[in-house]
Specification:
Helix content: over 70%
Organism: Cellulomonas marina
Distance between the termini: 36 Å
Order of helices and strands: HHHHHHHHHH
Shape: globular
Number of helices: 10
Structural class: mainly alpha
Protein name: Intracellular septation protein A
Number of strands: 0
Keywords: Membrane, Transmembrane, Transmembrane helix
InterPro entries: UCP010219 (IPR016566)
Strand content: under 5%
Amino acid sequence: MEAEHFDALAAVGGVRGAVESVAPGLLFVVVFVASGQRLVPALVASAAAAVVAVVARLVQRTPVTQALSGVLGVAVGVVWAWRTGDAADYFAYGLWVNVAYLVGTLLSVLVRLPFVGLVLGLFRPEGPLTAQGSWAGALAWRRDPAQVRRYTWASWPWVGLFAARLAVQVPLYLAGEVAWLGTAKLVMGLPLTAVALWLSWVVLRGSGASRAPRGPRPAP
């Protein structure tokens, strides 16, 4: 995210990742409307799209993490809607996930452990997801007030993203407007995620020189 150039497509997982993310929800809405608002065909179409994505990656021996995370979300939505018989409940899990993200991201900013800093810290050379890193190293940036401020500003677009999704989609969910809810979810999914990533990148770009916290000057 601190790179000099921003690639929106790569940021959301490339063409394949975007298709895998959008296809289940898109098929659910299209089949639901085309079948005269029949729930079962829409659920089957959505589940099939998610399963096909995982199987294709397994056959091609490519990483399945993103596809598996999509299957989990789709599976919860399918089971929830099937058990209640309410098509709007297909999207209920996603709404609760956004509630959790909104609360977590906002709290992270308020307690000065901004979300973006926590995520990027995991991938820093000092972070736990690298060979020589540690959990303590992932928080080393907190010793630099400038970095804390930068990560705080970079986290606000995510607070806005989750809040905007809930402000638009919750009323549609409560009204049972399944087609509009599905459309809003698609429009406010990857496109808005790419916007939030870009805004965070704008704040952080060119900050590589200050990645490591400033330590005491060497003695003369």
